[in-house]
Amino acid sequence: MHAAGEEERKGGNGMVIRKPPMGFNTWNTFGNRIDEKLIVESADAMIATGLKDAGYEYLVIDDCWSKYERDPESGKIIPDPDKFPRGMRAVSDYVHSKGLKFGMYSCNGVRTCADYPGSYDHEFLDAQTFAEYGVDYLKYDNCYRPESADQKMLYRRMGMALRATGRDIVFSACNWGQNDVWSWIRSTGAHLYRSTGDIFDTPESYRMIARSQMDKLSASAPGCFNDMDMLTVGMYGKGLVGSTGCNDADYRSQFALWCMFSCPLMLGCDIRYMNEATRQLVTNRELIAIDQDEEARPPIFLQGEGETDRIYAFKFLENGDYALGLFNLSEEDRDFNVLFNDTGLAASAGYALALTNVFEGSNGGVHKEHLRVHVPSHDCVVYRARLVRP
Ligand code: GLA
């Protein structure tokens, strides 16, 4: 016996994501300069460079994919025929044929941030359209929202519209951290929440973003993760959010911070032309394992209060190991002194920590009570640690 209307119940096919998604998003580098060729080549690059093997799965088209106006008869958003002459289903099919997942973008206001049609008051129609395209991930932005419309309600509405399609679609809410987003967004069905304004490819930008979330990470957990924006790793100042660019030490720090904070790893560089340093960094399996740790516990921060240019992050991992990330955000090389007592490891317990350096893949030795590490300016050192009896 079914209750009346039960066959109409949609969504709830199980948890859509358990871990922070990994993939590529077009915005940081390409902005408006997107088309089918870019998506096809990026999908191919995800395979050829080993990104897919390392866990990168979602290929997401950001803003600027549609015509400027909806179809007057159906009311649907229409793909820009110059950019996507075969329509979005063909693009989606290609992405899926590579074993990847396909993502797209819309906005809770009447227009998107780049002034294309937004989904306000068209949520259920648009969600259905995305489902017909075979979309697996929707980034949902926050521009041109009518003053009278409640932001929380609009995220709920799209959350429900996506579930009503019956398709598993990652709902990536992007309200830039407004209204203490971490405190309510989980209730809207969102799987991700952008917690800050847009990233730029400068050291100051990724540092500011990371620092701003240090006291809010306990709200990020399986089912709904804190999204600190697409990575600028490997951009070296090129592309839309390019700005001054960063050096390789900064990119190591940015990537490792995102991993220590269990954030989505959405690449924003041109993945077709990554250099070897970038490729190795973003496919570092030890770092990715820290990011993708099933429990996604927030790190403990060990630096002194008010200390802003050093981050000591210590994270409990699901298999009983720990991760230790030491970040030097200053302009000078610094020594970091980690007192294990601060991690919870009482000296009287008689344990030591056996360390593996995750960048070098090298043995970091066995240490009792404390660890002293030299960290160059802008750089970081990250260890995986295990309790041992010395
Ligand atoms: C906002 C978002 C960005 C990007 C642009 C697109 O600024 O925060 O990530 O999606 O809109 O216009």
Descriptive labels:
alpha/beta, 390 residues, single chain, binds alpha-D-galactopyranose
Poorly predicted segments: none
Order of helices and strands: EHHHEHEHEHEEHEHEHHEEEEEEEE
- Total number of helices: 10
The total beta strand count reads 16
Broad shape: globular
What ligand species are in this complex?
alpha-D-galactopyranose
Q: Give the termini distance in whole angstroms.
A: 63 Å
The Rg value, from CA coordinates, equals 22 Å
Mean pLDDT: 96
Describe the largest sheet: 8 strands, parallel
Would you mind describing this structure in some detail?
The protein is of the alpha/beta class. Helix content is 24%, strand content 21%. It has ten helices and 16 strands. It has helices spanning 27-30, 36-48, 51-54, 87-97, 123-133, 151-164, 203-213, 248-260, 276-282, 285-291, and strands at residues 22-25, 58-60, 101-107, 137-141, 170-174, 192-194, 225-227, 265-267, 300-301, 310-316, 322-328, 334-339, 352-357, 362-367, 370-375, 380-388. The strands form three sheets. It has an eight-stranded parallel beta sheet with strand order 7-6-5-4-3-2-1-8. A six-stranded antiparallel beta sheet has the order 9-10-11-16-13-14, covered by helices on one side. Strand 10 (310-316) and strand 11 form a beta hairpin. Helix 5 packs across helix 6 (151-164). Alpha-D-galactopyranose binds next to loops.
